[in-house]
Amino acid sequence: MHGTWAGTGNGGGGGGGGASGLRGFAKLANRPPPNQQTGCRDPCAEIPLCRAIVTLILGGLLLIAGIVITALHYSGQLQGDDTGTVGPVLLCLGFMFCLLGIVWIPILRRKEARRQGTDFYEAQAERVRLEAARQKELAETERLHGGNPIV
Q1: What domain of life is recorded for the organism (predicted)?
Q2: 0.85 exceeded by pTM
């Protein structure tokens, strides 16, 4: 595990935190995403809600499987010790994944809306910077040519 987590394999020692531990985390955080390392495209990268929807569907499938197995066990059609625990476990996992997907969708929507707003403000700031640079250049040209700007 060389250099994968803060404090392991990067000279930071263990558990002390501080700047040395943060260097290892910075190395991990600045690593390019896996799809850039392998050259493969991530199909979920282009659809903002893809992972949340997949999580919601997986949770629904686990929930349905848990309901079916639990109902079959308690109706007496499934015999065995393991079927009595598998059904409720699948119910819990399905409910957990459904809840995660349901909560994740509004978070991603809010994040997307905030990112679009940020893009707008960045474009506005760039326009203001360009206009200020143009005005500065015109003023410098006027100063150099004695009040006769060359446009």
Answers
A1: Eukaryota
A2: no
